[in-house]
Amino acid sequence: MWYQLRRRVRHAWVRVTLKSWVLARARYRRHGVDLQGRPGESIWYFAYGANLHRDAFRGRRKMQPSEWRVGRIAGYRLRFNLDGRPKGRTAPANIEADPAAEVWGVLYKITRRDLVWLDTTEGFPGYGYRHLWVDAEDSDGNVIHCVAYLARGKAEDGRPSQRYLTLIRDGARDHGLPAHWLAHLDTVRHADEG
Fold first, then answer.
1. What CA dihedral angle connects 32, 33, 37 and 43, to 10 degrees?
2. pLDDT per residue over 127-139, tens digit each?
3. Is residue 2 within a helix (H) or strand (E), and if so which, with residue range?
4. Which domain holds residue 20?
5. Are 80 and 159 in the same domain?
6. Cα Rg for the chain, rounded, in angstroms?
7. How far apart are CA 92 and CA 66, in angstroms?
8. pLDDT tier, 83 (very low <50, low <70, confident <90, very high otherwise)
9. pTM for this predicted structure
10. Residue 137 lies in a domain
11. DSSP per position, 37-87
12. Domains of the chain: total
């Protein structure tokens, strides 16, 4: 009961901060993060996990990007080294610096206000993920400065749930990510496999 009340209060506070950029800045500052720019300013967000899936990104998270492109970030690799829910049974996606690797995903053009909303759905600021501002390259070779989520993960990878991995794989296929990346995703084993 206490948990549900606390959760409702938190959601109400988030709705209020989304309507006031001043309050949103205060919320971020409380967590040691500087919220820059203006609410309507466009930015690019790089999705590599469940947000690849249209139903997850546009449906559940209620995001309406003005544009999207297939892209990649060099110097990082895809990991499943975080604790999901239930703890110890699933492992959400993460990225980690690796000069010899790359991660493919989708670049979504959203507003900074949209990013604040997306942050709340990802538990930022204050929990696991943090923003990583990085240069991505779209499928036409254009360099795009974007934000991605990065967390301090465990040394060993876990296994994502079958549902979560299906969202990633289906989203990657629907957006036309390269065949070698789809093949890589198909090698990831989910938690329900022996």
1. 180
2. 678 899 999 999 9
3. helix 2-19
4. 1-35
5. yes
6. 17
7. 26
8. confident
9. 0.89
10. yes
11. S-TT-EEEEEE-SGGGSHIIIIIIS----SEEEEEEEEEEEEE--S--SST
12. 2
